[in-house]
Write a structure and sequence with these properties.
The structure holds two protein chains of two kinds.
Chain A: H1 2-19, H2 24-28, E1 30-33, H3 40-45, E2 49-52, H4 61-64, H5 74-84, E3 93-97, H6 101-115, E4 124-127, H7 137-156, H8 162-184, H9 194-202, H10 209-224, E5 233-238, H11 245-252, E6 256-260, H12 279-290, H13 298-309, E7 314-318, H14 330-339, E8 344-347, H15 357-378
Parallel strand pairs in A: 1-2, 1-3, 3-4, 5-6, 5-7, 7-8
Helix pairs in contact in A: 1-9, 1-10, 7-12, 8-10
Chain B: H1 7-30, E1 35-37, H2 43-48, E2 53-55, H3 56-65, H4 69-78, H5 91-97, E3 114-119, H6 123-135, E4 138-143, H7 154-160, H8 162-165, H9 168-189, H10 195-221, H11 229-240, H12 246-264, E5 275-280, H13 293-298, E6 300-304, H14 306-315, H15 323-331, H16 334-339, H17 343-354, E7 359-365, H18 369-372, H19 375-384, E8 389-394, H20 404-419
Parallel strand pairs in B: 1-2, 1-3, 3-4, 5-6, 5-7, 7-8
Classes of the chains: A alpha/beta, B alpha/beta.
Bound molecules: iron/sulfur cluster (2 copies).
């Protein structure tokens, strides 16, 4: 059962995006999103299944011909490739959240390809969730969330009611609770490696919530019996990752990623969607507060990192070539790590591709430093 | 540097230097507040509340033009701020964060009371947070809601039907944020914003931009371009930061009059011009000589950049019953007008036709990620309109990786093989 649970959850994370375009009937009930900052509760309440775009080590010739180099992360290049090669033609809708400037530009580009007659696309929607701290923002987000519900209701051909949403919220909260239990196994003395944990946590977004809750519970049981891992625990920060490339690279040098700054795995870290206010407000608030994106205020991100850093031995900062923003956090991160005497290293490769030799070297040096310090402490 | 052909250009440079010296005097001697703003923030609100404002991009361009950027950029890199991060809006931060590594122009920026930025690109929140922290000053952010509806011919809609140009929820959001900004500025200045004065100021901005519009028409229609692009930019920039003031209106008029005289007298920037060029993107501030380089060798003259054209097309708002809303409608979509599909390409092709452009040089800013987007749509639209395009890879303030000789050779080759052949 447990191995099945691990395999099934991993498949629920890995496969859906790559499988688009293979099964027209399944695609018709699919809504693709470019980053996990869109309320999946609304998508599900409309009767659709959410599938997330992901960075992959696969070529993107059609996208490369139209996207400027160095500006779009792998997941968006893959998304545009899928759009231009007809793999999205049967899906119900594509939702691009205002998660980063690249996402927003990708939204404008896709609409333009269609306007220019380059490709026919399903409805492409912008989910304009703002995350800055201004007092006008919550009402704006609430209205955008309500507008999303209306658009999805129209696409589904039936109105999504508050009750429909309440049911989905309850089910998804139960899945969140399961993700939290799973996430807890990475803290303190981790019993699960980062590359195992990431897909299991990230599957939350694409797996039906009841199924997720059951499979995650089974995974927890399986891991609880394991003995703790002894390698250095690494916190992965910088540009949020959407896959396990860096986890595997760190694992290959004897460390384990015990936490990362990524919206894919933050579901388990965040709180439930509140049942105390109306569902639209509750969803808007939850996704604004907890979605890890390039638009999340630095102070909020720093608090999260501060919480996570207490339980790690080293920090790896991913600043891939397309990063236009997280790099500005680096001096603060350095000071922060120095204050706590935690070593850190910058990884510069594209996380969707196999780690570069230079990054592997940086990881090895980082982890060697941790081992030396541990030995010094023991000695 | 090529000699200035217009008296107005000399006057504009003198004005800016004096203005900045006066700003420093007020801040240091009288302890009066000033603000440091991103270029797309409504400067009018600050000026009317007696809080003079410095534009960050203008400050960056000045540092670059004074050839001081490399030292500051090296200091950023040494501090771990990698070279792939955008420099245009962070170079100013570097002059504050690493004050000793280079010489900031004109004595440097005093400590502002407030920094204010629109959160267009993702980096802005971070750059301005770091900068506010370095100054120990307050930061006011104007978030940038994304556009889903981008109706055709924005530059026409914007004048009279500006409410239709911006989706109602975006307009309301930006207007609400500007109202909050006004409250903050009122608290700082101890004065109350006079709404009638704001309306009047926006009307004066309209007048200024109408003058620029007329100047643009002269430039577009004269047999040969009467004023160099670099001088167009210098005059427009100096006025835009103080737009709608007495000086700005008078200066715009002088600028126009001088061009009119030159056109009437048949004076050209590059007599015997053979190719009319357009520059697409922000200015190459560290090497403005580049723009006059091909006049003697090829009779190729830069006629157009966004700076003059964007004044009338981006700023004019008629029917200002609610001045804050009018300001919001201007502010909400700067980035979309200038960089993004479908708006940027549509406008630039229209401008190219109006200015009888023979070829376009399109900036590919390596690190300025959001402003680097949309380039391919612009290039495609220009080529489809029969205008050959040469992409120019460069950073507008960072000269370190710029190869002036190689780029000039590429332009000459482009002119020989695609434009004048
Ligand atoms: S990306 Fe745009 S806003 Fe950001 S620093 Fe560069 S030019 Fe400025
Ligand atoms: S991205 Fe464009 S609009 Fe924004 S500040 Fe930079 S140059 Fe100006």
């Amino acid at each position: 059962m447990s191995t099945t649970a691990l395999a099934e959850l991993t498949a629920d994370f890995e496969q859906p995006f790559e499988a688009l375009g293979r099964d027209a009937v399944q695609d018709q009930s699919t809504v693709v999103i470019s980053w996990p900052s869109v309320p999946i509760e609304i998508i599900r309440a409309a009767g659709f299944r959410p599938v997330l775009a992901r960075g992959l080590p696969l070529p993107t010739p059609a996208a490369d011909a139209v996207l400027e180099p160095g500006l779009f992360p792998s997941r968006l290049r893959q998304l545009v490739e899928a759009a231009l090669t007809g793999r999205l033609k049967n899906i119900a809708a594509l939702i691009v959240p205002r998660t980063s400037d690249s996402d927003y530009k990708c939204f404008l580009y896709l609409r333009e390809f269609e306007r220019l007659g380059d490709v026919r696309l399903p409805p492409v929607l912008l989910f304009d969730l703002l995350q800055s701290a201004g007092p006008e923002v919550p009402a704006y987000d609430r209205a955008r969330t309500a507008a999303l519900r209306e658009r999805l209701s129209a696409l589904a051909g039936r109105q999504i009611s508050h009750d429909d949403l309440a049911v989905e919220i309850a089910a998804t909260n139960a899945a969140r609770a399961a993700a939290r239990r799973l996430g807890a196994l990475r803290r303190g003395e981790p019993r699960v490696t980062g590359s195992e944990a990431f897909p299991l946590l990230a599957a939350f977004w694409q797996c039906a919530p009841e199924r997720y809750a059951a499979l995650a519970a089974a995974a927890v049981d399986a891991f609880a019996a394991r003995s703790p891992l002894t390698g250095p625990r690494v916190l992965l920060v910088g540009a949020p990752v959407d896959g396990t490339g860096l986890h595997r690279a760190i694992g290959s040098k004897g460390g384990t990623v015990s936490a990362e700054s990524s919206a894919f795995t933050s579901a388990g870290a965040g709180e439930d969607v509140s049942a105390a206010v109306d569902p639209i407000t509750a969803l808007a608030d939850k996704y604004r507060r907890d979605s890890i994106t390039a638009r999340l205020p630095v102070a909020v991100l720093e608090r999260r990192i501060e919480d996570a850093v207490a339980a790690v031995d080293a920090v790896a900062v991913s600043l891939p070539p397309d990063d236009a923003s997280f790099g500005f956090d680096y001096p603060r991160l350095c000071e922060f790590a120095a204050r706590r005497s935690i070593p850190h290293a910058v990884l510069k490769g594209e996380p969707a591709l196999p780690a570069t030799a230079a990054d592997l070297e940086r990881i090895a040096t980082l982890l060697a430093g941790v081992v030396d310090r541990r030995e010094a402490r023991v000695g | 540097m090529a000699d200035k052909q217009l008296q107005s250009s000399v006057a504009a440079a003198v004005f800016q230097k004096q203005w900045f010296a006066e700003l420093r005097r007020r801040v240091f001697d009288e302890r009066r507040p000033y603000a440091l703003l991103q270029a797309d923030v409504p400067f009018e609100l600050f000026d009317l509340l007696d809080i003079p404002a410095v534009s960050n991009q203008w400050w960056s361009s000045l540092i670059a033009a004074k050839r001081q950027a490399p030292q500051f950029l090296d200091a950023m890199a040494a501090d771990g701020l990698s070279d792939q991060l955008c420099r245009y809006c962070s170079l100013g931060l570097a002059t504050t964060r690493y004050p000793t590594v280079g010489e900031a122009p004109w004595g440097g920026l005093p400590t502002p009371r407030l920094l204010c930025a629109r959160l267009t690109c993702d980096c802005i929140h971070r750059v301005f947070s770091l900068w506010a922290e370095a100054f120990g000053a307050e930061l006011f952010e104007i978030d940038h809601p994304g556009a889903s509806e981008l109706p055709p011919r924005w530059w026409e809609l914007g004048r009279h039907r500006w409410r239709e140009l911006v989706e109602p929820h975006r307009l309301a959001f930006v207007a609400a944020t500007l109202e909050r900004l006004v409250e903050r500025l009122e608290a700082i200045s101890g004065r109350t914003l006079d709404r009638a004065a704001l309306r009047e100021r926006l009307e004066r901005v309209n007048r200024q931009e109408e003058i620029f519009d007329a100047a643009r028409q002269l430039i577009a229609s004269a047999p040969e371009v009467p004023v160099r692009m670099t001088e167009q930019i210098a005059n427009v920039m100096a006025t835009q930061w103080v737009r709608g003031t007495d000086w700005a209106l008078a200066h715009a008029q002088n600028f126009y009059d001088e061009i009119r005289l030159r056109v009437d007298a048949g004076k050209a920037a590059c007599p015997g011009e053979r190719a009319r060029l357009m520059w697409v993107g922000a200015g190459l501030w560290h090497d403005t000589d580049f723009y006059t380089e091909f006049e003697a060798s090829h009779g190729a003259v830069f006629v157009w950049s966004m700076y003059l054209a964007f004044g009338p097309d981006g700023y004019i708002r008629y029917g200002i019953d609610d001045p804050i809303e009018a300001l919001a409608s201007r502010t909400a979509s700067f980035n979309e007008y200038l960089h993004n599909p479908p708006w940027a390409a549509e406008w630039i092709v229209e401008q190219a036709r109006e200015h009888r452009i023979d070829a376009a040089l399109v900036l590919h800013p390596k690190s300025m990620k959001p402003s680097a987007t949309g380039r391919r749509f612009i290039e495609r639209a220009l080529e489809e309109a029969g205008i050959p395009v040469l992409p120019i890879e460069a950073d507008v303030v960072d000269a370190r990786a710029w190869n002036p000789a190689a780029t000039r050779a590429a332009v000459r080759d482009f002119l020989d093989t695609r434009v004048l052949a």
